[in-house]
Amino acid sequence: MKISHLFFRIALAAGLMIGIQGCFVDLLQQENKENLLESKQEWYVYKIVLHDARELTPVWEGAKSTMIFDADENRIFGVGVCNNYFATFALIGKKLQVSGIGSSRRMCEENEGMNYEFWFFKALDGEFAVKKKGDKMELRGNKATYYLQYK
User: Fold this and answer.
1) C-beta neighbour count of 145 within 10 angstroms
2) CB-based contacts of 96, cutoff 8 Å, min separation 6
3) Helices (H), ranges, the chain
4) Residue-range domain boundaries for the chain
């Protein structure tokens, strides 16, 4: 009887520790999301550098490429140049995994705008290292690096 009682206590203690650790990890992940991504803050993408060193910037003065991170829903959304887009993300440490990208299908007035949006959406799929400092953030991926700033 003593052995079964001891086993029960050990199992109960282990279960509690696992549950507490799980809650702690969830809290850290949520805090990391909020600190890194500034949930629901509108970021402006002012430059994209593709892996082949081509540099892309929004094509006309009024064009603002944006990214808004919704940490509660694990979604990114915004405007490329003339089309709205959305995607899902997972944040593991300081790595951002982006997938499920979709967009509206409006035609931009200028071919340069269509080219910019093509690469903006295409390069967004994948894993990114997140580096944030003040009002600037870099998303460094295999296909491209996105340079963001909020105002």
Assistant:
1) 19
2) 37, 89, 90, 127, 128, 129, 130, 139
3) 2-37, 111-123
4) 34-150
pLDDT, one tens digit per residue, over 40-75 is: 688 999 999 999 999 988 766 666 789 999 888 899
Instruction: Say what the pTM is.
Output: 0.74
CB hemisphere CA count around 133 (13 angstroms): 3
Q: Exposed/middle/buried for 150, CB within 10 Å: 0-12, 13-18, 19+?
A: middle
Q: How far is the C-alpha of 32 from the C-alpha of 112, rounded, in Å?
A: 36
d(CA 145, CA 2): 62
- Dist CA 15 CA 30 (whole Å): 23
Q: Give dist(CA 6, CA 97) in Å, integer.
A: 44
Q: Which CATH architecture has domain 34-150?
A: Beta Barrel (2.40)
Distance (Å, rounded) from C-alpha 115 to C-alpha 145?
17
What is the predicted pLDDT for the residue at 139? Answer: 95
The backbone torsions φ and ψ at residue 23, rounded to the nearest 5 degrees and listed phi first, read -65, -40
Q: What is the DSSP code (8-state) at residue 106? A: P
Amino acid at 56: L
